[in-house]
Design a protein that fits this description.
- By secondary structure, the chain is α+β, with helices and mostly antiparallel strands.
- The protein folds into two domains: about 15-170 and about 305-320, Jelly Rolls (Sandwich), CATH 2.60.120.10; about 175-285, Arc Repressor Mutant, subunit A.
- About 40% of the residues lie in helices and about 20% in strands.
- A six-stranded antiparallel sheet has the order 10-6-3-8-1-12, with helices on one face. Strands 2-7-4-5 form a four-stranded antiparallel sheet.
- Strand 4 and strand 5 form a beta hairpin.
- Helix 6 crosses helix 8 (about 260-270).
- It is globular.
Length: about 325
């Protein structure tokens, strides 16, 4: 499972179809889905062939899907259609969520992936929304208790059925599909050329949009202006390279598109709680208790164990709805 920030330029040509998904690579196991819980600070814009259901466990998140922004709190749920560009940022400390990503192999021509508009809010609860949360609880029970595989498959389709009944058909307009395709083209261009000088004009031109139109739409999708977003992309690439102690930090800064070493240091200090690249590298290799992990300033995501304690928390959300 590769949640959120694990991205690559493009999936290898020999990858299975389910893995070719924008620039986020999702690997599915025999369960035909990924279920993971995490404490998250920020997730850059991405898209993939897997539809997904996000449930907020704690705190508050702003989730941008296309050019629409959702403000979600604990107990709220949001379904994101396959191939939809989406990003996420925490609006409160210690914000946590649980995500279910449905493998494209669950669907076929006669039974396509649901294309839905579904957002359930804790303070506007309906019986159909509650059934979706019930379906999520049953699915987590199957995963935690390691029940028979066919029971898990049944739980997956039961959850999908509840989503279809609770949501409404979401047939996209041709204009919105065209805008989304252009934004994807721009994001993909940034992800492939972050290591060289880039301007908003360059990216807008490549995407086939005017400067002002692309700038306005980009801010809605990414939740950052272009300069901030490009810095964050370069910073995330640098974090990955810093995990290899054989590569000098000066070389890493140039490889990631920072014109000067001090630019990388400034980006770390601004976005990583004052840490320098050297301090980040030392912290990465310092021993940590994997059962007691918390999000640090240098991280955007820390996964939580999928266990009985997590199941109890989701049950509490269900109890508060009933």
């Amino acid at each position: 499972m590769f949640p959120f920030s694990v991205t690559q330029r493009t999936a290898a040509s020999h990858s299975p179809p389910a893995a070719r998904c924008g620039y986020e690579l999702i690997a599915f196991d025999a369960e035909k889905l990924n279920v993971f819980a995490a404490q998250v600070r920020y997730c850059e814009p991405h898209w993939h062939a897997a539809p997904e259901l996000i449930t907020v466990l704690a705190g508050r998140f702003a989730i941008a899907v296309g050019n629409q922004l959702w403000q979600l709190e604990a107990g709220d749920m949001l379904y994101i259609n396959a191939e939809a560009v989406h990003s996420l940022s925490a609006e409160a400390p210690n914000s946590e969520l649980i995500t279910v990503q449905f493998s494209p192999s669950l669907f076929d021509v006669l039974h396509p992936a649901p294309r839905l508009a579904f957002c359930s809010r804790q303070r506007e609860v309906s019986a159909a929304d509650t059934q979706v949360l019930c379906g999520l609880v049953q699915l987590i029970i199957q995963l935690v208790e390691q029940d028979a595989p066919f029971l898990r498959i049944a739980a997956i389709y039961t959850l999908l059925d509840a989503l279809v009944k609770a949501g409404v058909d979401d047939a996209p307009q041709e204009s919105s599909l065209r805008e989304e395709a252009m934004i994807k083209k721009g994001l993909d261009y940034i992800n492939q050329h972050y290591d060289r000088p880039l301007s908003l004009s360059d990216v807008a031109s490549h995407a086939g949009m005017s400067y002002s139109w692309f700038s306005r739409l980009f801010k809605k999708v990414s939740r950052h202006n272009f300069k901030e977003y490009l810095t964050l992309v370069r910073l995330n690439k640098a974090k990955n390279l810093l995990c290899d102690t054989r590569t000098p930090i000066t070389e890493i800064s140039h490889c990631c598109g920072f014109q000067e070493h001090k630019s990388l240091i400034a980006a770390f200090k601004k976005y990583c709680g004052g840490l320098t690249p050297t301090e980040y590298r030392k912290r990465y290799f310092s021993p940590q208790n994997p059962l007691d992990r918390h999000l640090t300033f240098a991280e955007d995501c820390v996964c939580l164990p999928l266990n009985a304690a997590l199941l109890a928390r989701v049950r509490e959300l269900l109890k508060s709805r009933c």
